[in-house]
């Protein structure tokens, strides 16, 4: 299968765009000065007011066959023109809550089935200076009865996603290796890995 690549780009008018549009915002700053701002806005937001979920899957062996691990996915992202490593994620379908969307998306992208939701974050914004896009982070429990095996993914037509299992304690180091391979690391995944690494250093008195 040939490697994905960007063939060409062109300007797109807001009226032609299917998933996003551009918006000019008129606002007043704390001194009362009138200002304007430009941003991208999703057209796909449903009644829930939440665009998407990112999924932090906690894989734990019920027989202690492997250390606590998580799932990451690799896929080519045309806006940056590179492969990106990130958490499993996806848009929330109409009528879904974030928890149901997270369990569905995790199984579609990785094949793993979560048995319960551990925690759901408050509403978060991804790039508030540029877009209205928002999301929730859903942490889910994925118990593994015996040895670790990669189940079959349930990808939609046109999706090309590689799923991997990584030990949580080794995630930060693994992401540094991805950078050497010219991957782009998603900020949400990077921040989680950095936070976990920092917590371990504080616990061990290494700071």
Automatic annotation (TrEMBL):
<feature type="domain" description="Nudix hydrolase">
    <location>
        <begin position="48"/>
        <end position="189"/>
    </location>
</feature>
<dbReference type="GO" id="GO:0019693">
    <property type="term" value="P:ribose phosphate metabolic process"/>
</dbReference>
<dbReference type="InterPro" id="IPR020476">
    <property type="entry name" value="Nudix_hydrolase"/>
</dbReference>
<dbReference type="GO" id="GO:0047631">
    <property type="term" value="F:ADP-ribose diphosphatase activity"/>
</dbReference>
<protein>
    <recommendedName>
        <fullName>Nudix hydrolase domain-containing protein</fullName>
    </recommendedName>
</protein>
<dbReference type="Pfam" id="PF00293">
    <property type="entry name" value="NUDIX"/>
</dbReference>
<keyword id="KW-0378">Hydrolase</keyword>
<dbReference type="InterPro" id="IPR000086">
    <property type="entry name" value="NUDIX_hydrolase_dom"/>
</dbReference>
<dbReference type="GO" id="GO:0006753">
    <property type="term" value="P:nucleoside phosphate metabolic process"/>
</dbReference>
<dbReference type="InterPro" id="IPR020084">
    <property type="entry name" value="NUDIX_hydrolase_CS"/>
</dbReference>
<dbReference type="GO" id="GO:0005634">
    <property type="term" value="C:nucleus"/>
</dbReference>
<dbReference type="InterPro" id="IPR015797">
    <property type="entry name" value="NUDIX_hydrolase-like_dom_sf"/>
</dbReference>
<comment type="similarity">
    <text>Belongs to the Nudix hydrolase family.</text>
</comment>
């Amino acid at each position: 299968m040939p490697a994905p690549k960007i063939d060409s780009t062109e300007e797109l008018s807001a009226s032609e765009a299917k998933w996003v549009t551009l918006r000019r915002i008129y606002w007043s700053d704390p001194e009362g000065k009138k200002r304007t701002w430009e941003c991208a806005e999703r057209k796909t937001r449903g009644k829930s007011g939440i665009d998407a979920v990112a999924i932090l899957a906690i894989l734990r062996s019920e027989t202690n066959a492997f250390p606590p691990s998580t799932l990451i996915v690799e896929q080519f992202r045309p806006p940056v023109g590179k492969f990106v490593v990130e958490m499993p994620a996806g848009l929330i379908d109409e009528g879904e809550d974030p928890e149901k969307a997270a369990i569905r998306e995790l199984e579609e992208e990785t094949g793993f089935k979560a048995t319960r939701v551990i925690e759901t974050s408050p509403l978060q914004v991804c790039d508030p200076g540029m877009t209205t896009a928002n999301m929730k982070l859903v942490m889910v429990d994925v118990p593994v009865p015996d040895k670790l095996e990669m189940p079959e993914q349930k990808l939609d037509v046109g999706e090309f996603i590689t799923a991997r299992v990584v030990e949580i304690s080794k995630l930060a180091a693994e992401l540094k290796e991805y950078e050497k391979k010219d991957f782009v690391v998603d900020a949400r995944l990077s921040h989680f890995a950095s936070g976990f690494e920092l917590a371990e250093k504080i616990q061990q008195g290494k700071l």
